[in-house]
Amino acid sequence: MSLPALQNTGVFYRRIVSQFPQDISLAFAYGSGVFKQHGTSQGQMERNMLDFVFAVDDPVTWHTMNLLQNRKHYSILKLLGPNKISSIQNDYGASVYYNTLVPVDGRMIKYGVISIDSLIDDLMHWKTLYVAGRLHKPVRMLLQSENGKLRAALVSNLKSAVTASFLMLPESFSEEDLFLQIAGLSYAGDFRMVIGEDKSKVANIVRDNIQHFRILYSNILRDCPQVVYKPPQGKLEVDKSPEGQFIQLMALPRTLQQRITKLVDPPGKNRDVEEILLQVAQDPDCGAVVQQAISSIVKTSSITQSIKGIATAGLWKTVSYSSKKLMKMWKGWRRKPSVSQMS
Fold this sequence. Notes:
It is a single chain. The protein is α+β, with helices and mostly antiparallel strands. The protein has a domain at about 5-240. Helices cover about 55% and strands about 15% of the residues. The chain contains 16 helices and eight strands. The protein has helices at about 5, 10-15, 40-45, 60-70, 80-90, 115-125, 130-135, 150-170, 175-185, 200-205, 210-225, 240-250, 255-265, 275-280, 285-315, 315-340, and strands at about 25-30, 50-55, 95-105, 105-115, 140-145, 170-175, 225-230, 235-240. The protein is globular. The two termini are about 40 Å apart.
């Protein structure tokens, strides 16, 4: 059997992961090379770059091993050694170190390395919403260690995405409305959506993957006391009373609550978080405040991580990768009339 026929199987992805140091607690593949997006043919999908994230317990040890196994994957930063590479990973941007445009088994891949502690922090508290945001959408899980803290953080991240989306949606809405809102959380405020990304990206992600979103979120929606979920009709009704919104605001991740209080509380007042969130819950513009706060998290991490990406990828790869993104954006513009007519 020829390789292309195998290119979307678990074996194919595991073969790629096996070419890296095996001290990985979580590995997943995501993006348009893994999940079909609206307007993309199977042939285009198989030409798209595959995106991976590897969460590791000890970045210094992992990069030490990877520099021995896959030295060519790194930019000139490899000359600084594993300790400095790990510092760049942990201390700048979204605590992810990406190697991009790496040829493996006949495909181009990009892989990000994050420490398990940084990942759990982002999942629980939305410190950067960078990897947490990718995990709001369907991903292909390839490897997951028996780590109870990690498992709880992954579920907490999905619950937070639902709660934040409820606050930004009207009282009644469809499953598709909810999934569009969830998929858009990590793009709100992302400067790359202005230049470098297809503007229809969020709709394209959701449109052909409704069933994957259902698998991710149906149990959370069924168990949530604040929503009436009607799966056969694909309809939802959420509690939009000030009391209901206050409960939702109190359940949001810590960083998001801090950003909301910063937006609402005048400097020098220093009221406690609960008092401020009670005020926001009664505000008709509550959803807009939450949206603005999420945008402020995403904007910061998308800019700092992209600047860091120039160093970790190297100039030539940065130019090559950016030109591919701009080409996708241009194709998206040309497709826009047909894509925007959501069924």
